[in-house]
Structures are given as structure tokens and as C-alpha cells.
């Protein structure tokens, strides 16, 4: 029987969390900032269990897709749940069910939203169980707890912007609240390197030297650009930042790459779009082949034009404000 549930959104970082000072509790080498993708959600339900141990199950819900979690993926999710139970002093064993409102094969990473939803669901469980610890738990503490499950999830507790400097993420005021998001879903047939593994490998790249300073200085310029409405500056910083991260991947030992010919093609199309229109999107890429584009609210027509110019086999998933493109 269901005891409680929680949902949490995904997020896309513009200054990336890449490289850690602790791989066990996910403390970041540098600060990162993300836009929360309120339309891309994970839900976690917690149910009673007859079993002696916690277990994970797909959550069956109309319009939602249960992730295909490997044994390793389930173990990682349940390990985080165990840590949360310990923190809140929750006894007993439970069934943890999860689903996303976006398909698991569409190339959108669900770890940030699912770990954030799990943290919030455990917090709800703690309240139901009358945990004294839950009474005094702040958003900062929830963010810090979520970080220990998956780093980027600590930013999913705030919208529209979250800034994560050290232990926890915090909301950022005064930045545009109405940006739209498109993700161009591209097939990546290469062998996958998990983002947790990427965090380890990047430190072997010769370019990791100076990475922290580069990220910190871009963060300051990005905040200035977003705050003053200098969209060209925002777009330029997003571009150099994700290219920097991907170059770290491609020059690490052993090297690996998520960029495909199609990702490079979309990025070239973005650059041409800017040249032709004197305006365009802010592009970014995570640890995958997909290209994410941010558009200002007044650019809906440009976003539709850009999407229409893409090859037919490139799927575009857009935020609700761009629906219909
Ligand atoms: C490239 O949060 O997935 O998306 O802490 O090991 O779970 P773990 O890593 P994760 O790393 C995300 C990396 C990124 C950049 C970002 O979201 O900042």
C-alpha cells in the first residue's frame, strides 16, 4: 500500500559540474548553475513492504514511463534510500517505485530528477513516521542529502535557477524565469561512459589544469550576462563551457567521447543561425550526444524555424511554451 510520494524536475547545467573532490559524497570541483526543466519530471512512490529488505519496482502510471533500471542502477538508488532512512531515523523496509513523464530511451538523463524525487519522497515518509529529524530539516539540508545520491540532483530542488557551490544548491534570484528549452535527441551508438566515471576520468586530461578557474570565471560572466540580458554573452559562455567539458572527455586517459557527427552538425547549425540572424539560442550538451538549446520567451518563432530546419530524423522535445513547433 502506498504511504507517500514526491515528484522532482530535471535540470540542465550551463556551467557544468565535472570533476569531484569526493567521489563518495559527490562534492564538486567547481560551482555549477542550472536551469530547472519543470516539464521533465520523475515521481517516486514509497509503499509498505512485507520483505525484510527494501526493493525497487517500476511505477506503472498512465502517461509515465518506468525507467529500465539495471541491477547496479537499482542498488545505487536503494543505497541512497538507505542513507536517507538512516538520516531521518526511519525503521522498516519499503518498496520504492519510480517513473518519469518522459521516455527512458529519449536520451534525457533522469538521474537528477529521480534522485531528487527519492530524497523528497523519503522526507515525506519521515514526516508520516513522525521523525523528529524531519521537523528541523531545511531545503539546504535536503539539497545536501540529495547531492550524496547524485550530485546534479541537488540542483533539482529549486526553480527556475539553482546554483551549487559546495555542499548544497541554492535558488538564484533576479535571472530570467521564462526561458524555453529544446533538446535535440540524437542517437549515440557509442559505448556509454557513465557520468560518475566521466567525473573521475576528466582529472587525467592535461586540460583539467585550470578547469576550476575557467568554470568559476565563466560562472561570474554568465550571471552578469543573464542578469543584464546580454543574450549573446550568455550563448557564447554556454558554448565554450560545454565544449571545454567535452574536450576534457576527449583528452582524458583513456579518452572517450559523447559527441557524434550529428551533435557537431547541430552545433554548427546553431553557429550559422546566429550569424544569419544576429540572434539565436544558447546551446549546451551534457554527458551525451544530445544538444540542448535555451531560447528567450520572445524567440518562439526562431525556435520553431530552427527545429524545422533540422533533418527529419532528429527528434525535438520542447518545453510547453514552444509546443507546436
Ligand atoms: C555532465 O550528477 O550525473 O550532467 O554525482 O556521479 O551522479 P554523479 O554525477 P551526475 O553528473 C552530471 C554531470 C553533467 C553536468 C551537470 O549536470 O552539471
Task: Give an overview of the whole structure.
- By secondary structure, the chain is of the alpha+beta class.
- It folds into two domains: 2-171, Ribosomal Protein S5, domain 2, CATH 3.30.230; 180-318, GHMP kinase, C-terminal domain (Alpha-Beta Plaits, 2-Layer Sandwich), CATH 3.30.70.
- The protein has nine helices and twelve strands.
- The protein has helices at 71-88, 111-128, 132-135, 139-149, 195-201, 211-228, 231-250, 261-277, 300-308, and strands at residues 2-15, 20-22, 27-28, 32-48, 55-58, 94-100, 161-164, 169-171, 180-185, 282-284, 291-295, 315-318.
- The strands form three sheets. Strands 1, 4, 5, 6, 7 and 8 form a six-stranded mixed beta sheet that branches.
- The N and C termini lie far apart (41 Å).
- The structure holds ligand DP6.
- Ligand DP6 is lined by residues 13, 16-18, 26, 32, 111, 150-152, 195-196, 199, 286-287.
String of helices and strands: EEEEEHEHHHEEEHHHHEEHE
User: In the CATH scheme, what's the topology name of the largest domain?
Assistant: Ribosomal Protein S5, domain 2
Q: Strand fraction band?
A: 15-25%
Mean pLDDT: 95
Small molecules (ligands, ions, cofactors) in the structure: ligand DP6
Question: Which regions contain 5 or more consecutive residues with pLDDT less than 50?
Answer: none
Per CATH, the architecture of the largest domain is 2-Layer Sandwich
Radius of gyration: 20 Å
Q: In this structure, how is the largest beta sheet organized?
A: 6 strands, mixed
Quickly give the structural class: alpha+beta
